[in-house]
Structures are given as structure tokens and as C-alpha cells.
Write a structure and sequence with these properties.
The complex is a heterodimer of chains A (385) and B (245). Chain A is an alpha/beta fold and 385 residues long. Chain A is built from 17 helices and 17 strands. In chain A, 36% of the residues lie in helices and 24% in strands. Chain B has a single domain (2-241), classed as Orthogonal Bundle (MetI-like fold). Classes of the chains: A alpha/beta (385), B mainly alpha (245). At the A-B interface, helix 2, helix 4 and helix 7 of A face helix 8 and helix 9 of B.
Amino acid sequence: MIRLENVTKRYDGTTAVDGLTLEVAAGEVCVLIGASGCGKTTTLRMINRLIEPTSGTILVDERDVMDRSPEELRRSMGYVIQSVGLFPHITVADNILTVPKLLGWDRERMDIRARDLLQLVGLDPGEYGGKYPRQLSGGEAQRVGVARALAADPPVLLMDEPFGAVDPLTRERLQAEFARIQRELRKTVVFVTHDVDEAIRLADRIAVMRDGRLQQYDTPERILDHPANTFVHDFMGSDRALKRLGRVQVDSVMRTDVPVAADGRSPDAIARAAACSESRFVYLVDPQRRLEGWFDCRALELEGSAETAITNVDWREVSVHPDASLKEALSRMLGLGFRSISVVDETGVLLGVVGLDDIEETMTDSDAYIAPASAGVNETGEAEA
Amino acid sequence: MRRRGAAIGVVAAAVALYAYVVARQDWWAAALARLFPSLPEAVFPSATVADLVLQHLQIVLISSALTILVGLPLGIWVTRPSGRDFRALVATAVDFGQTFPPVAVLALVMPLLGFGLWPAIVALSLYGLFPVVSNTVAGLEAVSPAVLDAARGMGMGRWRILATVELPLAARVIMAGIRTSVIINIGTATVAAAVGAGGLGSPIYSGISLQNGAWVLEGAAAAALLAVLADAVLAQVERAVSPLS
């Protein structure tokens, strides 16, 4: 658990962080968000004493960080930065083992740890362990950066725009994997970003900052629905309903009772096998249950030809991953002109289907309404501003 | 890896060949006599070429060792928070050390240290400082700030970062500075003869005063070959310490 009490950082003339009070519960992801220069990175760096506060107290597990040696403190916290900062002269495995080496682990334990961590972040240990950082793509380097931060299994993770320097597609994937790893490991995470979608997707609580002061600290849902003031309202953007979809993963709303028929037979055989009474579409899969296309029962009705009712597809182009957000799924549907989209795993195996009506339902569950400014929960009293 | 091995083999063979040629005093006598048939004494009589090379190496090794011993810590210090304020001052001083002619330094140091090896060592050490210090600073400053931030953020101490991150990453640039310094030193060390420190400058100085071109050539050729050889040896060292090879 991390607690900041009235923390201020002043540089000559300017105040970077101004009387910040914030509490991050154990196992939660706290995202600090704001425009550049709002003090979010300064706040993060004060937690591991890379910057020392001018006044105020920072407690980690009820212990004042100023009472601990900076080195010992930092070894108990994973640290991930946007530019990764892998050591270019040593291998990926040795990079990952930086902190275990500082802590004096024995060789065998370190080898096992490096292998496990590479696996955890989705890199093949045999292939990547001996590589050098210059041989990695941006996304791979950042995965190694995350593995390095997790190496000594620290309870706390500090992440400063960790996915800010990779392309949007890789960023989505890294976010999904971070969410998966976090569900598994339940670290106490302080995460800095200026990307609202990223904050909404990953945060348990979001701290919106402006000019060194906390504007609102609350769950993403409440920040979207009840912004504490006009700044928060404007910062989160006008598409708040859409943004909320970024919080929901496809696999939590998809329907799994999808009618399927094995492909590879004649159109007429498919037409007979298709249980058209159940729903309009029957999905065609191969023996491994990989998506190959679908059968449109209404087309059969209208045109009477089984052949025109069949659509063969490449699953990569017309599906979403179960880790994807509803926002992504909706965007894909709009792009493809579909009213529903299939959900498949990495190998193309059909897991379920999510439709526009499912998304609509999710949205009405927590109907968006903009609260009056005073309704926002705010720990510094900024709401009245 | 195989090409590296072959390159080291070639350099080692060149070193052995140089040592052998230097040891064959009779070859030098014969060659110089043929080039300068009018001179009664074509080869320097006071010392063999081998002895002169050994003296020369002694001067160069001691002065270069001193240069590194002073220059490397100086370069490290001015890139630390405690020494950053002195960076400009050190750069100017070191710069001045190289622009000041070594012969003049010899003349200035002689009253203090007398005649012989030590005034020569002092003059040469100061003269070679510039490339070592400037390359040490350049190498350390080229280390990416992100790497240093990550190192600090993971709980590495200042000395550990220097020893395991900064110096390995700067090693190639620092070594290039040392190489330049040593090469300059081998040529410049011929002035040591002016204060009686010996070395390959001896036949050159004597040859000039007695108008014996053969002696000048003898000293100059041996020194030039030594410089070329040292350059090749140090180039291999530079590659060996390069972190990304």
C-alpha cells in the first residue's frame, strides 16, 4: 500500500507537485494522468526517491520512504520507463536479472526466473534469452522492460508511460497483456500516462492532475460519469460513453453459445446441417474449430440458394481477440459494416460472438449522465473550484 | 569471431617480425651503409637499435601509464555531480597541456627535476592527457540517459552503475582516446633525448648535430615502425573492449 500525505515538490520558482494526498490500495492499479508538466512523473519518481519531496510524507507499507536507503527501496519496486533503458551491452536474460543480481541470488534460481519471466511476457525464453537489446523490436524491448521490473517479484510497480513509445497496435497488445499479468500477480501499481483510453482501460483508480494539484481521484466509471469539475470533464473528452467501452473486455460480454457447422462439405449439406431456427448466422469452422466463414440463414430464405448464403473469410480480418476492449470490437464492426463480430483466439479458434446489441446493453447498464460539479468525490476539495 | 582471431594473429606476427628486425644490428649496419655510402659511420655507435627501442618503450610506457592514471579518473570526475562544475576548467587545462610544446615543458621542468628520465616523463604525460580526458568525457556522456535512469531506478548504486554500465559502454571511446595518446607519445618521446633520457631520439639528435643523416633515419624509422605497430595492437584492444562487438 502506498500513501502520499500532503506531498509538495518545489523547484526554484515553480511548484511541480502541490500538496498531493493520495492512497493506492494494495493490489490496485492507480493511473496518474494529466497534460505534460502536470507533475505526474514527478509524483511517480518521488515514490522511489529518484526525486526527493520538498515537504510531505510518502509511506509504502506504512514505512516512510525517507527512512530507507534509496537503493534498498528501489530494489523493492519494479521500475518501467517509456524509453525502456535496457542495458545494450548485456543479453536480454542478464538485463532481466539486474535486480536479482543486486540481491545476490544464486545462478540456478536466476536462470529459472529469467525463463519464467520471458514466458510471462510472451517471449520464447530459448529464442530471446541470449539476444541483445538492439535485436529487439520496440514492443519486444518493452516486454523485456516489464519482465526486468518484475524480476525480484517486488510488491510495487512504478510505470512511467511504459507503452508510450510503441505503435498503436503493439500498444493495444501490451495493454491487454499487462492487464492479464496484473490479474495474475496483483501488484500495487502506479502508472503514469497522458492517454485517457489507456488510463480507462487499465486503472482501478485514476488520479487526474493539473498544475501539480489533484483534480479528482476515483474509479474510471465515476470519473467518466461524475467529473469533479470542468477540467476533468473536458480532459476525459466528449466521447465518454465510448471511452467506457474501453473498460470492458470482449470475453466478459461475448455469447459463447454460437451455432456452428463444420465446413468443407457441399453448400447444400451445410444448409441442411445449419440450425437456422436458432439464429441468423451459423458459423463454419474446421475440425480444430478454427473460423472459416459463416452461413447466412436469411440469405437462404430470400434467395433460396445455399451457395450465396455462404461467406468464406480469413479469420484474421473479421474477428477480435477475447482480450480486446468493447471499444475496439465496436470500431471493428463499424469498419466492416457488421452488426456482430466473432471472437477468436491467437490460432483462429472460434470462442464466441459479440454483437451491437450486447454492446448496447453494456452501455445502458451504466447510463452516462453528467453530474453537477459538486457531485464528484474529491480529496482535496478541488471539486468546488 | 574467426576474423578477429586472424587479425590478432597478423598483429602478433608483425610484433615478432619487428622485434627480430630490431635485434639484427648487422642488418641495420648493412642497410644504412648502403644508403649512405659516403658516411664513415652509418649506424649509431653509442647503442644498438634494440637498446634504443627498449629505452624508448620504457619512456612511453611509464608516461602513458601516468597519463591514463591521471586522465581516466579526471575524465570520470568531471562527469560526476561533484566534479561537473570543474569540467570547463579541466578541459581548458588539458587543452593547454597539448598546445604547449613538449620541448618547452622539458625546459621548464628541468630545473625542478634535473636531467634524465623524469623530466621527460612529466612532459610527455601532460602532453598526452588531452585525448584521454576528452574521450573519457565523450564516452561517458554518450551513455543514454534512459539507461542511467533505469539503472538508478532499479536500485544500483553510483559506483556500481559506473563500473558495470557506464565504463563498459564507454570503453571503446575511452580506448580510442588512449590509443591516440600512446601513438602521439611514441613520436613525441624522441624529444626525451634532449634531456639525456635516451630512446630513439638519441640517434636523431646526435645525427642532426653531427650532420649524420643515417643516424637520423635509423631513429626515425624505428620510431615510426613502432608507432604503426602500437596502433595496430591498440586497435585490437579497442575492439576487444568494445561492448557491442
